[in-house]
Amino acid sequence: QVQLVESGGGLVQAGGSLRLSCAVSGSTFRFNAFAWYRQAPGKQRELVAAINSGGSTNYADSVEGRFTISRDNAKNTVYLQMNSLKPEDTAVYYCSDSEAWGQGTQVTVSS
User: Fold this and answer.
1) Which of 1, 2, 61, 111 is deepest in the core (most CB within 10 A)?
2) What is the sign, positive or negative, of the torsion defined by CA atoms of 43, 98, 19, 15?
3) Of 26, 23, 15, 20, nearest in space to 48 by CA
């Protein structure tokens, strides 16, 4: 059974940075693609960034150039480096392998 555990969320001022981590267990990690999603209050969950097994990435237009997704196959961990944060980035951030989901980590950006 695949388990994903997110960490690294918190409260940050606009313009600041955070790095989210997603620790994955029970998976053939290096063969899988992973993605970060987010859900703000009253809004639908949206894709933020994705990375495939070969390391290719794609991003939502709203975070392109500010966020970077990466993976460490030795540590079975996926990261989301978030820079130049904006209040509209406030949301619960989730990690997924397209079937399993983590519990989410709250990111709050104050203006």
Assistant:
1) 2
2) negative
3) 20
Average pLDDT, 10 consecutive residues per value, the chain (111 residues) = 96 98 92 97 97 97 98 97 98 96 97 94
The closest alpha carbon to 25, from 70, 71, 96, 77, belongs to 77
Both tokens of residue 26? 């029970």
Residue 91: other Cβ atoms inside 10 A: 22
| Alpha helix positions (H), the chain | none
Q: Which two tokens stand for residue 31?
A: 């063969």
**Residue 19 DSSP label:** E
pLDDT at 24: 97
Nearest partner of 93 among 83, 80, 111, judged by Cα: 80
Residues in the chain: 111
The partner residues of 51 in beta bridges, in order of sequence, read 34, 57
pLDDT on residue 1: 87
Tokens read off for 79: 């990261």
